Amino acid sequence: MRFNTRSHLGTLVTGTLALGLATGWSVREAQWAKAAGKRIPNGTVSLADVPLTDATDNGKPTGKAAVLLDGETPSTQSMQVGRFLLDPGVEPHAPHKHADEELLIVSRGTGEVYCNGKTVQVKPGAVMYADPNVEHGIKNTGQRPLEFYWVKYLPHASK
After folding, report:
1. Are both 68 and 126 inside the same structural domain?
2. Mean predicted lDDT score pLDDT of the chain
3. In the chain, where do the E strands start and end?
4. Are residues 75 and 144 in the same domain?
C-alpha cells in the first residue's frame, strides 16, 4: 500500500477545520443560550403579576418594593424597572451613585429628591434623571406612602 502525503494532509486539514467550526459553533450557541436567559422579553408586566416584598435598609423597614423587569436588552448591558412604596419619613437608602443611568418617577405621595447636589420637593408626576456616577436619592416627607418607579440601565459600550 502506498502512502499519499498530499491526500493525508488534505484529510487532516479538512478534519481540523470541521472540528474548529464545530467547537466555535458550540461556544456561540452556549453563549447565546446564556444571554437569552437574561434577556428581557417583549411584552407587558402587570403590577398584579409581581408582588411587593418588604424592603429594608440596614435592617430597618423602609416600605415595600418589586422588581418588574430585570435583564438585558438589545441596546443595554442591563436594565431594571421597579416599583417602591416608601414609608413616611424614610428613604430607601442613603443617597448613592452607580454606573447606571437612572430615572425615578413619582406616582403618589410627596417627598424630596436629591440629585447632583440639589434637593427638590416632589409630588406625583415628578421625574428625576441621573447620569452615571451622579449622587441621587429620594425621601418620603409626607404622611402617606410615596410611590415611585425606577428605571436603571447601563448602555452597551460605544463601538
Report:
1. yes
2. 86
3. 53-57, 60-73, 76-86, 101-108, 111-115, 118-122, 127-130, 136-140, 146-155
4. yes
